């Protein structure tokens, strides 16, 4: 999970507070020392940490204790609020009013610009936009080809004039092409360098002058630590960024530097990317990230993600089935199909509060396995699909034969089905628990 160790440390420190009926200034001091260490260890910018701890302390000591909260809960509430405001002020939308709306993607080489451009194009397409990807990186060998590959994966057209034309002219021509072809959003994939250099900045500034992009997004690799903050600062200085996209938040490095970007540069984080797959991008919500770090899970993100991919009517039916305990293997198959579109299961589970994703590694839905699962379920009788408990050894053998698999595989599937059923029940229960917890906090 993102910021796993920061999250663990903060949670255990804050848990100590909730157990206490009264909090003294000393208790708060001690807790804030731990919080400070946890943030510093996670590589959050020193100045940002100092300010953060100071504010939380002042607010904790000076606040009127609300009747509905224990003092410990009150502190958690304040930490949550301050963590949120450190990362931003609400969701920052893309501001695209012109037609076509132009987004310039920039960043250092390897930050994930090309991948992220394709991800954003896909994201925009899902929202009903008609995007165009424009290949302005004429320096890195194979950059154009790479954009064409990811473009075709997300089924978005890629505009290129090859690598012999000036990037500024390519950008202009790309915008003209979009206008002529009724495409409403242009994503300019610009060149990166290993380090910031004058020539790169000048080229980007020229593109800005010529096509006036409404959005200038800096793609930043969250794994580069404090360097990410410096890069953001310089790019913002030279280009007046409108937003940041943080990539590689799936990495298990400390990542805290990324959390300081907003506080240091005041440029909002607009999206976060957590994987190489082209749907692994999310709109950034500071409040949800804060709750995720503090272990409140990210039920909202989960729901949003599910809504984008899952048929709502079907979801309602599924909910009823879970409630009535009539979830069958047929539904399971149906679910697997839908969940495949959601991304890796353990990533989803990480968003659920209190969910131990490690315990559920075994139920992850591997694409390759899907064909087998389908064959196995299709080889069952209707009765077996509805009541898998009746599947004994001889039925298992018959099903394995019918599906061209082995009894062991059939067994595994039945176990997965049981686990998923259990997990879904748990999820339902947790949803209720969360609501209660939220109200208390
Ligand atoms: P560019 O040089 O900035 O255009 O970077 P690329 O788009 O070529 O990405 C560099 C590498 O980072 C590629 O191997 C990508 O697959 C990978 N990458 C991009 N975004 C992510 C992410 O969110 N998570 C992970 N793990 N890898 C990513």
From TrEMBL:
Sequence ranges assigned to domain Signal recognition particle SRP54 helical bundle in this UniProt record: 2-87
SMART domains given in the database record: AAA, SRP54, SRP54_N
Cell compartments where the protein resides: Cytoplasm
Domain SRP54-type proteins GTP-binding: 100-295
The AAA+ ATPase domain, residue ranges: 99-273
Catalytic reaction equation(s): GTP + H2O = GDP + phosphate + H(+)
Residues that, per the record, bind GTP: 107-114, 189-193, 247-250
Matching InterPro entries: AAA+_ATPase, P-loop_NTPase, Signal_recog_part_SRP54_M_sf, Signal_recog_particl_SRP54_hlx, Signal_recog_particle_SRP54_M, SRP, SRP54, SRP54_GTPase_dom
Protein family per UniProt: Belongs to the GTP-binding SRP family. SRP54 subfamily.
NCBIfam families, per the entry: ffh (TIGR00959)
The name this protein goes by in its record: Signal recognition particle protein
Gene: ffh
């Amino acid at each position: 999970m993102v910021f796993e160790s920061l999250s663990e440390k903060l949670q255990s420190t804050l848990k100590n507070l909730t157990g206490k009926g009264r909090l003294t200034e000393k208790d708060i001091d001690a807790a804030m020392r731990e919080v400070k260490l946890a943030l510093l260890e996670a590589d959050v910018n020193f100045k940002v940490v100092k300010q953060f701890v100071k504010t939380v302390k002042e607010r904790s000591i000076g606040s009127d204790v609300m009747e509905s909260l224990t003092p410990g809960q009150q502190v958690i509430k304040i930490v949550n609020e301050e963590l949120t405001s450190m990362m931003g002020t609400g969701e920052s939308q893309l501001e695209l009013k012109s037609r076509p709306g132009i987004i310039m993607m920039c960043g250092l080489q390897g930050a994930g610009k090309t991948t992220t451009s394709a991800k954003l194009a896909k994201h925009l397409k899902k929202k009903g936009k008609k995007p165009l990807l424009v290949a302005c990186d004429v320096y890195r060998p194979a950059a154009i080809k790479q954009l064409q590959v990811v473009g075709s994966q997300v089924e978005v057209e890629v505009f290129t004039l090859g690598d012999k034309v000036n990037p500024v002219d390519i950008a202009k021509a790309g915008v003209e092409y979009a206008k002529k072809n009724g495409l409403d959003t242009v994503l300019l994939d610009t060149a990166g360098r290993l380090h910031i250099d004058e020539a790169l900045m000048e080229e980007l500034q020229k593109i800005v002058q010529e096509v006036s992009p409404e959005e200038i997004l800096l793609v930043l690799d969250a794994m580069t630590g404090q360097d990410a903050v410096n890069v953001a600062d310089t790019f913002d200085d030279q280009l007046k960024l409108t937003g940041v996209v943080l990539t590689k938040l799936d990495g298990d490095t400390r990542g805290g530097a990324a959390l300081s970007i907003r506080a240091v540069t005041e440029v909002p984080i607009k999206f976060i990317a957590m994987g190489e797959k082209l749907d692994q991008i999310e709109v950034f919500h500071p409040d949800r990230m804060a709750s995720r770090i503090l272990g409140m899970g990210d039920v909202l993100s989960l729901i949003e993600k599910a809504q984008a991919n899952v048929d709502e009517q079907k979801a309602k039916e599924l909910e009823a089935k879970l409630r009535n305990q009539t979830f069958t293997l047929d539904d399971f198959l149906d679910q697997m199909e839908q969940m495949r579109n959601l991304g890796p299961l353990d990533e989803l589970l990480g968003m659920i509060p209190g969910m131990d994703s490690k315990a559920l590694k075994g139920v992850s839905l591997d694409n390759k396995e899907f064909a087998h699962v389908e064959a196995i379920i299709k080889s069952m009788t209707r009765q077996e699909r509805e009541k898998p408990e009746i599947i004994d050894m001889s039925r298992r053998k018959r099903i394995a034969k019918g599906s061209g698999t082995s009894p062991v595989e059939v067994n595994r599937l039945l176990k997965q089905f049981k686990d998923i059923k259990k997990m879904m029940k748990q999820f339902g229960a947790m949803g209720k628990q969360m609501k209660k917890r939220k109200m208390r906090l």
